[in-house]
C-alpha cells in the first residue's frame, strides 16, 4: 500500500493543481494582441490576489477592486503597539495537504509552524471540560474510555459508509479512475443527507449511547467539536476527512495575510511586462475601492466603483461572497444564467466569532506545583468559549490567547456584544474551568474580535453546504467552462472558497482562482501548453459527476 502523502486532490474534480502551477511550461499563453489587456478582479483576498498574480504572468493587467481590507478572510490583525503580534481573525490553520496554497507560501518565502490544535504536541496539553467534568490530556490515550469509543466509532462509520480506506488510498495514489469509482456513487447517496444522519445511521454509533454522539459533537475530531456542522451535507464533511483538511495543520509565522501582501509585491517572469513587474505596480501601488456595478457593454464589461468611475474590461473575475452580488453590487442579471443565480442565492454561510487578547508573556506554561501541570491548556468546552487556543511567540515577547472561537449558535450569542463584554464573558467561563488562575492581570492592550456575519463585505464566515446543495456547487464550480454558454454570459468568472468544493479552506480559493485563470486565458483566445494541460482541458474527461435536476 502506498505511503504517499494525502493532498487536496479531488475528490469531485481530481485535477492536480499543484502540478499545474509548478510545471516549467507554465500555465499557458494568450495571443500577443491581448497583451496588456485589463481584467477586473473583484476582491483582494486569496482567490483575487493569486489569480491576479497568474494573469499578470500571462501578460494581462489585472485591476483589483477591494471594498474593505486587503487580504479578505486572510486577516492578520496586529495588536496595538506591536509589529508582529497578531490575531488571525479569518483563516488561521492550514493543513499540509493544501499543496496549492503552500506553493505560494514557499514562493514568497514565509515560514509555518504546527498549529496548537487539541491533543497535539504543538498544544502541549489539552483540557476537555464537558458538563462540569474536566479532563487533562496530552494525547487521546489520557482521556477516559468514552472518548476512545467515540474516536473508534467515527473511524468505523467512515469505513462503513464511504469505503474510506480505499477512497483515501486513491487520493494518495492520485488514481483518478479508482477515486471516481468510489466517490461518484457517494455523491448521490449522501448529497441529501446530513452529517448527523451519517453518524446516527452507522452501526458503530447505533451500538453506543446518545452521550457518545453528544461528546462527538462537542469534541469531534482534529480541531474540536463539530456539532455546528451536524445539519450540513455529509459530502462536505467527507471531503474534509478524506483530504485531511482537519489534520496536520500549521500556522503562518507573522500572520497569513503576509502571503497576499508579499504576492502583491512579488515580481515574476511575465509575458509582455518588463522585468520587475508586480501586481502592485500594475495597479499603481494600491487597489481601487468598492465595485458597485458590473454591466455588459460593447462585447466586454464595465465596472463602476463607489465613486462613480466607470472602467471597461475584457473580462471580470468576481471573488467576493456570492450574496454580495445581490446586496452590495448591482449586477446585470443577464450575465448569469437563472440556474446559476439560484445557486449563488441559495449559498448558505455559517457564522463565526473569535475573541483575542494579547498578554504579557506565555504565562500558561507556568507549572502548577500542586499538579505538576501547566496552569492553562488548550481548552475544549461546552461553555460559551467552546475553543481556547494559546500562541507562544517566545519567552521574551507578548503572547496571544484566542479566548473563544465559536460557530453558528455559539457565535450568535456574542454577535451584538462589544469586544470588552465578549472578553468578560469568556474570562468568566474560563474561571469555572481554571478556578484561581488570574488571566486578567496578564492582559495588555485592547482585545481584537470578529463576527464575520456582521461585516457588510462578507455577511458570513464561510459556506456550509446544506443537504441537496451539490447541484448548486456543481454549477458554481464549473462556471469557468463557458464554451457552451450564450455569448452574453461569457467572460465573467467566479472564484473563492465559497465557489469551491471545500469551503472554509484556503485551498478551495486557490483551486477556483486557477480555474478562473484558465477561463480568462481561453476566453481571450489563449491555451494551456500541450505539456501542461489545465483544468478546463481535462474537465470533459474527469469532471464532477452530474446529478439530474
TrEMBL record:
Keyword annotations: Auxin biosynthesis, Plasmid
Enzyme Commission identifier(s): 1.13.12.3
BP GO annotations: amino acid catabolic process; auxin biosynthetic process
One Gene Ontology molecular-function label: tryptophan 2-monooxygenase activity
Domain of life (superkingdom): Bacteria
Residues covered by the Amine oxidase domain: 47-519
Leading EC class: oxidoreductase
UniProt similarity note: Belongs to the tryptophan 2-monooxygenase family.
Protein name: Tryptophan 2-monooxygenase
The species this protein was found in: Paracoccus zhejiangensis
Amino acid at each position: 500500500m502506498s505511503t504517499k502523502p494525502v493532498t487536496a486532490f479531488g475528490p469531485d474534480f481530481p485535477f492536480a493543481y499543484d502540478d499545474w502551477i509548478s510545471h516549467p511550461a507554465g500555465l499557458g499563453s494568450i495571443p500577443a494582441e491581448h497583451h496588456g489587456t485589463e481584467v477586473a478582479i473583484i476582491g483582494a483576498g486569496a482567490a483575487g490576489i493569486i489569480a491576479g498574480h497568474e494573469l499578470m504572468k500571462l501578460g494581462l493587467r489585472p485591476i483589483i477592486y477591494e471594498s474593505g481590507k486587503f487580504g479578505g478572510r486572510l486577516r492578520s490583525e496586529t495588536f496595538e503597539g506591536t509589529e508582529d503580534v497578531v490575531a488571525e481573525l479569518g483563516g488561521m490553520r492550514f493543513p499540509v495537504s493544501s499543496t496549492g496554497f503552500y506553493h505560494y507560501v514557499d514562493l514568497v518565502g514565509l515560514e509555518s509552524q504546527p498549529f496548537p490544535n487539541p491533543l497535539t504536541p504543538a498544544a502541549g496539553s489539552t483540557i476537555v471540560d464537558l458538563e462540569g467534568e474536566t479532563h487533562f490530556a496530552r494525547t487521546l490515550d489520557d482521556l477516559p474510555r468514552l472518548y476512545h469509543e467515540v474516536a473508534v466509532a467515527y473511524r468505523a462509520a467512515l469505513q462503513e459508509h464511504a469505503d474510506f480506506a480505499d477512497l483515501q488510498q486513491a487520493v494518495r495514489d492520485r488514481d483518478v479512475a479508482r477515486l471516481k469509482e468510489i466517490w461518484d456513487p457517494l455523491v448521490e447517496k449522501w448529497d441529501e443527507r446530513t452529517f448527523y444522519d451519517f453518524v446516527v445511521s452507522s452501526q458503530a454509533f447505533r451500538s453506543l449511547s446518545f452521550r457518545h454522539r453528544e461528546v462527538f459533537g462537542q469534541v469531534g475530531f482534529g480541531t474540536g467539536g463539530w456539532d455546528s456542522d451536524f445539519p450540513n451535507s455529509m459530502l462536505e464533511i467527507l471531503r474534509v476527512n478524506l483530504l485531511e483538511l482537519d489534520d496536520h495543520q500549521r500556522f503562518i509565522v507573522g500572520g497569513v495575510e503576509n502571503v497576499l501582501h508579499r504576492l502583491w509585491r512579488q515580481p515574476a517572469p511575465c509575458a509582455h511586462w518588463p522585468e520587475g513587474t508586480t501586481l502592485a505596480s500594475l495597479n499603481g501601488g494600491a487597489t481601487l475601492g468598492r465595485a458597485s456595478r458590473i454591466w455588459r457593454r460593447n462585447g466586454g464589461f464595465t465596472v463602476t466603483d463607489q465613486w462613480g468611475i466607470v472602467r471597461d474590461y475584457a473580462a471580470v473575475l468576481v471573488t467576493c461572497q456570492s450574496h454580495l452580488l445581490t446586496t452590495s453590487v448591482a449586477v446585470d442579471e443577464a450575465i448569469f444564467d437563472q440556474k446559476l443565480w439560484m445557486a449563488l442565492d441559495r449559498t448558505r454561510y455559517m457564522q463565526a466569532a473569535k475573541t483575542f487578547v494579547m498578554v504579557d508573556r506565555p504565562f500558561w506554561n507556568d507549572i502548577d506545583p500542586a499538579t505538576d501541570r501547566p496552569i492553562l491548556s488548550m481548552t475544549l468546552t461546552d461553555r460559551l468559549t467552546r475553543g481556547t487556543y494559546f500562541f507562544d511567540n517566545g519567552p521574551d515577547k507578548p503572547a496571544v490567547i484566542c479566548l473563544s472561537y465559536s460557530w453558528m449558535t455559539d457565535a450568535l450569542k456574542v454577535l451584538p456584544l462589544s469586544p470588552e463584554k465578549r472578553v468578560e464573558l469568556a474570562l468568566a467561563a474560563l474561571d469555572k474551568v481554571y478556578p484561581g488562575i488570574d488571566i486578567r492581570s496578564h492582559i495588555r492592550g485592547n482585545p481584537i474580535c470578529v463576527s464575520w456575519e456582521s461585516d457588510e463585505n462578507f455577511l458570513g464566515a464561510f459556506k456550509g453546504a446544506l443537504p441537496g446543495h451539490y447541484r448548486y456547487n456543481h454549477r458554481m464550480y464549473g462556471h469557468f467552462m463557458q464554451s457552451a454558454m450564450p455569448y452574453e454570459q461569457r467572460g465573467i468568472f467566479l472564484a473563492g472558497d465559497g465557489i469551491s468544493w471545500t469551503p472554509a479552506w484556503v485551498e478551495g480559493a486557490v483551486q477556483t482562482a486557477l480555474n478562473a485563470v484558465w477561463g480568462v486565458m481561453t476566453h481571450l483566445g489563449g491555451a494551456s501548453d500541450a505539456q501542461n494541460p489545465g483544468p478546463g482541458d481535462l474537465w470533459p474527461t474527469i469532471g464532477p459527476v452530474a446529478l439530474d435536476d
